[in-house]
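Changelog entry: the Tetratricopeptide repeat protein record was regenerated in this release. Current contents:
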Amino acid sequence: MKNQTQFNNVIPFIPEGDFYFVRGIKAFQRRKFDIALKWIEKAVEKVPNDPLYQCQMSIIYTEIGLYHKANEILTNVLHHAKEPYVDCFYLLANNYAHLGLLSDAKKYALTYIEKEPNGDLVEDAEELLEIIDIEEQDDWLLDDEDELIIYQETAFYYMETMNWEKALLLLEEMLLLFPEHPTANHDYAQALFFSGDKERAIQLELEYVQKNPTSLYSYTNLALFYYEIGEFSEYETYIRALLNIYPIHDHQKLKIAVVLARTGYIENACSRFQQLNKESVSGHLSYYRWYSHVLYLLGNEKKSKKIWEIGCKKHPIMTKEVQPWES
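Regenerated structure tokens:
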């Protein structure tokens, strides 16, 4: 009875919002954003109307690049908080700047300065306005280099996702503006091949390799093209040359690794993938796609699934592809 009485007198510990909030801040400071978000969400559940909790949640979303989600939370705070939470205006300005919506960013930065002229974030807001002014001046001065970068990044995306028709159209347009761009010519040949015009693609690469007998891109393309059409004697000529080439740059190393993976040199491909700097190729969907395939074919299913999972997190479009163990 005594023990029962003691048990009944125990007051259960029910954390208030601050308990979760403090833990969320600690996780945020360690840049463990997924853990921080879980703690802050619990704090918001406990105290739904606390603008500080809401704003901290928006900051986490900003850090992981979910700017629209962050703005949704901040707008909600501005509309429903009992007292104006002026910091929201600066946070909105920062998010809109990241999204490239400079007029909105400028509006909210000015609003913050107007409402809180001595606020802690005034210097940050003024610095943001200076950056916006520079960006606005540069917008109409888009030079050839900027335009080339836009073409390259867009073409790269279509190539990595194997959207050959869109890649082909874009590369045709790009080559009208930049006819001497070497990578674009090789990308065009590859898009042409996988869009169905195989003979013309091979002919273009043969012409390129005659002009530049040491062109790595011609060798990788021709090895892949000849393998795909079943001309293995020609394929062997180019693939054996690639087996003896060890480039300095990681994107060139990756190109060889992918061709080896796609054409049956599985162990060689695995070795090449292992030599890559993960950080420098993390933007390449092809790294995760083909490295995972190679590992699975070599019997390392556990690591294959891990690489595929990481790839899907970094490149969500991969979730729509057939996994190596399902093919």
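The two ends are 65 Å apart (CA to CA).
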